[in-house]
Amino acid sequence: MASKYAFENLFRTPWELLIAIIAFSFGSICILHHQTLALSANMGVMIAMPCFLLALIRSYQGIQIWLFKKRLLLLKSFAMSTKEVPVSKQHLYLGKGFTWLPIHRQRLHLLSMLENQSYIQRNFLYRFVQKRAKDYPKGICAKLTTLRFLPFRPMPEIGGKAWLHGVGSDKEHNIYVNQSNRNSHECTFGMTRVGKTRYLSIKVNQDIRNGDAVLIIDPKGDLEVMQDIYCATKACGRLDDLIITHFGFPDISAKYNPLASFSNVSEVASRVVSAIAGSGEGQAFKDFAWQYVNIVASCLNELGEVINYKTIAFYIKRPEILLITYVDKIFPNIEAGYLSDIQEIIDENNSRVDKDGNPVAPLSRSIAIKRYLTKYIEEHATTGTQKQLMDSIIVPLYNAATLDKTYYDKITASIGPVLDKINQTQAESIFSFENSFGLPEIKLEDIIKRKQIVYIGLDSLTNKDMAESVGQAIIADLVSLCGRIYSEAGSKTTSLCLHCDEFSNIVRDEFVNLLNKAGGAGIKVSAYTQTINDLGAAFGNNQDKAKMLMGNFGTISMLRVSNEDTAKTFTNCLETIQTRTSVPSTMANDKPDGKNGDLFTTYNTDTILQTGNAIIEINDLFSLPKGQAFVMTNGGELYKIRIPLPKNDGTAPQTFETVLSEVNLCFA
Ligand SMILES: Nc1ncnc2c1ncn2[C@@H]1O[C@H](COP(=O)(O)OP(=O)(O)OP(=O)(O)O)[C@@H](O)[C@H]1O
Ligand SMILES: [Mg+2]
Q: Which of 155, 198, 218 to mutate to test the pocket of ligand 1 (most atoms within 8 A of CB)?
């Protein structure tokens, strides 16, 4: 049975056991009835010893084959409580499994043959009992399926082909990846309901109990994840470091303004407009929107006003008001005669009369300011002080405020709906706030500095557009933070574990940027999604961009997928190996002349054929049981794993409201 032979076949009767019985029996006869064999007692023992040794070796080999066949169909439940998940600073625990080698492909290849189909079917009795138990739920068979000591209990409801793991489970052990490899980021694919989020929980559990800074972005906002996080945080006494925001529960959620931190104010505009789909003509409107949001954000920044979605939305629609507020605040300090000049313009106008001698309509202050600015800009543009103008925001702001209103509205139309979708949701108070009323405030920089654990639930099932827009802004905020960390001294000591569930909801160009910069800034990204096509759709149906994105992930985990393109992203990276098939052939030739008494001759041969196969085929990924995955890491190491189902220790509150209140209101 060892693989040193040209052909290993475990799908056969374990004849080794027969040899073991014969050897054992003969050994026993040699000792017990040595006289019958004309042996002395000592001789009997001496002959019996090698027979017993042979019996032992053959029994071991036979039992291995028997166990191997039994394990093929074994589907064991595998769960771990919060504290049972192993924790290590050097390694990240993924689950139980084995290194996937060519021999496993070979075994699957043999299993696919007609003569071996019986090994992947449960025995007749089991099937009969299960069928009767379903047909008669109160019958005796139904009772038999509940008895622990009988082999009729139903298999765990995880579906898939158990033998994908069974072909290697004889070598099953704990599987880890090096924590240092995580800087090259990980991506997990899996169709819906196969265990992506539970896998996230297992990893987050370890990051939390390891004492790391952790940020979890969960577009759906899953209660179980929140509870798992709560339990892990409590288990290691870090509840004070935990902050949760869930967009479905703004009154008890932590506050987070994704526009508040930046190194350059122009980043604000990029974050706000990142949610506008931009290709073709749309790109031009996106650029216009960027330009005007940038003007508004720059002014608010110079004025020392809060920059949030609400203030941006207010002023982008009313550039005139911003112009007047800005000029009134800044100009008295830079132009000594500003206030008197404005008054002079108003007085001069109001003192004029029309051709009938009636006083002209009084001049509004805003028009007076515009006239003042027209003159101011002209003067500076022609008197050699253009540089002063160029550096100032005043010219673009003036241009925006004096643009024809209909035209201005048209070119900024793309940004309005995006901002409305954010501002007109109940979650608006999470991003646009002046007073946090004692609720904690999330600042990405603090997460790293104070080693906080932050969970952001975007509640995308209720408001997809808002979740996507804000999710992208969070990523952009992180990119900016990476840039700052990168350029700061001592950045090597920073560390943040970022987990993004359903990341196709928030992936855009900024995410690619994040993956590029994050590793160097000590941020380890773990992203989870369903299909590669979802990523392509997020890039405006640009599948090439999605494939390019995949180039940034050093570790890829594949749970069950049902999409060919997604499966191919994995299988295409794998080697081709040679699988062997034994082809028996028998021939007989008649010899009619019957010379030398030979009437016929026969030949029996076994030919071994080799064919090239992918070490993992697409179909294998389609048939994985729930909670099982193939993992490729560290430049080609390949594992087949069973992920434990996180079974939190039950110390977490039972509803969203109670978890959020307990975590956040202790700050109030
Ligand atoms: N490791 C596991 N072992 C056994 N069952 C599992 C495992 N992981 C997940 N499951 C089963 O699958 C269900 C769905 O898991 P999970 O929520 O993680 O899926 P998902 O891939 O995140 O789904 P969705 O795309 O809907 O978010 C769980 O409730 C559980 O019953
Ligand atoms: Mg999920």
A: 198
